[in-house]
């Protein structure tokens, strides 16, 4: 019953073989993605409901967001998704150096995303476009609209939760960089990289919706 | 693990290219006014982009279909959540029209908020323009 | 080999750290079991305190404020710290890998993490209690919960945290059921308890994220006044109810589906008959899990939701009755012409059938809008959900505990005492809660410490029997624990009920640290009593 010495050291004792372990991890990851979709889902529901109740306010308030920064962030995030997938590709192709490079690039793009987000947020803080009762912006474009603080509540909660995911993703990618550099991940065993990759693409995927919902329509 | 599907580099690059292209398209379209169709277009493009990410970057196209099922299930339950909630929030007021939407008066704290310029600085109502300009030069 | 036979997961490895850091699903399950029972006890004390207050109409024992805290904590502790984690976390953890012939769950570390997250959540709840309690009711309805001065935030944080533990357990079980079965153990050869855990896990991972985000929004509403649930800020308190019940109605299936699973195991084993309608039971589990997502609005019939959605929710609610009925009939047909033996687990299963049927049927009554407008927030609802949650889930849990106790602990409790306690639970339960149906029909509202003289008799009756109920449960647990005394070990080969699933046929009692000495080879289906003879063996 105990596995013989030839089985690789990353194979945990309760699995038969590497393939079973890999498939199990992946299924678990997808179940996790499902929970993520539904977590954000609750916020999407709030968005849809309030948009349907306050259509003019939403249209008016979204003009206060900076489309250029949003667009830039979209491009940054898509690029980081590409570098992430290429990191997995490179390691499958036994090119650990390239993989490491791609991971570092992904990390930097993630950092850039948060940097741009920081600029956006700090502007909003300055002018008082804040969530809830902290809202104080009454500029001419919006002063006549009903309850714009709700828009900014939803905006800050959704992008904030998304930003939190970016930050967590950065932590995970940093760990991947460490593990790859040490040689713990290689073409035989790269499951963590693939799983964190899936997580990272989810972060991208959610932003793909957030961008038009807040900045464009 | 070597027998796993390895997607060719070209595919990944083409996918990223498509995503960039669609991003530009959706921004471009948003500058035209199609009325409520803007939402439909924006969501359509976003869904297209999201599907591409899921199928190619997240490998659902080649994976065990269980994983795809999991993902589709998440969207299905989200769909249920949204639609069924809208059955309420979109149809209130059938009996009492006053409850059609939330008590739509502005939240009380707006009463004490001064009008501001586009920088969020309070303006007093008579000299709004003048004041606003002055602030600009700081 | 002989040396090996003496090893079991309880005694090997040794030391307190080997428990606290264990990755063994059986040990994690036991830790969940004792944690859950501790909270069951705490919730039970609160319940008896409330019944004491309600024994007479006035404020005789506690103040109104204290009473509000008591029912809130009772509900929240029982639901979030006991019922939801107890069956999947305790019995599910111990049994699932055994039933699949696996060495462990798919992600053992995640499993341990899940237990500790549960502990952290429990600490939040403890903190809430120590720092003065919370008085909103377990549902935390806005706008009261955004204005109440009691400790709403630590309590909701606790629920937020416990949610993650529930999600991780569900995720782990799904991966385990899909990927860790031994060769030959196909879906239709799985014990029905596994199907039940599968349905439960699906609900856990789909619904729980929504309560997590709801709690976050509620906390933010209190901290920042985000205006999403607060009518004074342009928000909509009814939306809170949608969010809450989108989780909490499916959550009642997180509570009851594993109970269904336990009953589906107990009945064929103790009737020594092949289960009737295996596929009906299996698929009704999945369809209940699914329909459960479409009916949440039946908790909101008086909230001011649109008439249109009331009709839709009411209509769909009736459909829940169909798969539920299918199960009840399948169990009855399983017993039909079987050799039913009146062992403690079987007595609990029979009580379950009786009590759950009453609970389910009254649920259908409440699902009718017109009737519910009269009955909502009365004791009728209180009686309904106690019939399903206590008469259903907790009774099944006790039954399961008695059924698998010899397996997981390697000892046998005093069966006569257990049978008497089961009778006490059954009588005490009905005595406590049946009068509450009548109280509700006569208009007694829930969540009040005092009441009109006209209700005094029924309340007094209910309080009296609640004492019997509490005492019976207490003794039955003590009876189980008493069996753990020295020199009371069973022979490791014991199969006291003649079970046919892998945990009975292929491993010792208590099981080996790695579950099986050799990977089991499947010889027969889980309930093939018509083909194979498995004699009960009972040796000291
Ligand atoms: C046949 C299936 C069931 C139906 C049709 C049903 C229906 C209902 C309805 C309509 C209500 C709302 C009553 C009101 O507040 O006016 C209700 C309340 C409740 N039900 Fe059920 N139910 C069923 C099974 C269950 C099960 C299996 C459980 C738990 C194990 C459960 C737990 C609850 C709880 C906890 C409440 C009250 C929540 C509260 O307001 O505090 N129900 N049920
Ligand atoms: Cu319900």
Descriptors for this entry?
heterotrimer, A: 217 residues, mainly alpha, Four Helix Bundle (Hemerythrin (Met), subunit A), 6 helices, 75% helix, elongated, disordered N terminus, C: 540 residues, Cytochrome C Oxidase, Chain A, globular, binds protoporphyrin IX containing FE, binds copper (II) ion
Notes on the protein architecture:
The complex is a heterotrimer of chains A (217), B (138) and C (540). Chain A has 217 residues and is mainly alpha-helical. Chain A is built from 6 helices and no strands. The model of chain B is unreliable at 127-138 (pLDDT under 50). Chain B has a domain at 1-63. With 138 residues, chain B is an all-alpha fold. Chain B has 4 helices and no strands. Chain C starts with a helix and ends in a 35-residue tail after the last helix. The mean pLDDT of chain C is 94. Chains in contact: A-B, A-C, B-C. At the A-B interface, helix 1, helix 3 and helix 6 of A face helix 1, helix 2 and helix 3 of B. Copper (II) ion binds next to helix 9 of chain C. Protoporphyrin IX containing FE binds at residues 139, 252, 255-256, 298-299, 317, 320-321, 324, 360, 363-364, 366-367, 372, 375-376, 381, 384-385, 388-389, 392-393 of chain C.
Give me a quick take on this structure:
In chain A, 75% of the residues lie in helices and 0% in strands. By secondary structure, chain A is mostly helical.
Strands of chain A, count: 0
Largest sheet of chain A: none
As for the CATH topology of chain A, it is Four Helix Bundle (Hemerythrin (Met), subunit A)
**Number of helical segments with 4 or more residues of chain B:** 4
Rounded to the nearest angstrom, the radius of gyration of chain A is: 21 Å
Number of domain modules of chain A: 1
Map the helices and strands.
The complex is a heterotrimer of chains A (217), B (138) and C (540).
Chain A: H1 18-53, H2 55-62, H3 67-92, H4 96-127, H5 148-181, H6 191-216
Chain B: H1 9-30, H2 37-57, H3 65-89, H4 128-136
Helix pairs in contact in B: 1-2
Chain C: H1 2-6, H2 16-20, H3 25-54, H4 64-100, H5 108-130, H6 144-147, H7 152-179, H8 192-224, H9 237-271, H10 278-291, H11 307-335, H12 344-367, H13 369-375, H14 379-409, H15 415-441, H16 456-482, H17 502-505
Helix pairs in contact in C: 3-4, 3-5, 3-16, 4-5, 4-7, 4-8, 4-9, 4-14, 5-7, 7-8, 8-9, 8-10, 9-10, 9-11, 9-12, 9-14, 10-11, 11-12, 12-14, 12-15, 14-15, 15-16
The complex binds protoporphyrin IX containing FE and copper (II) ion.
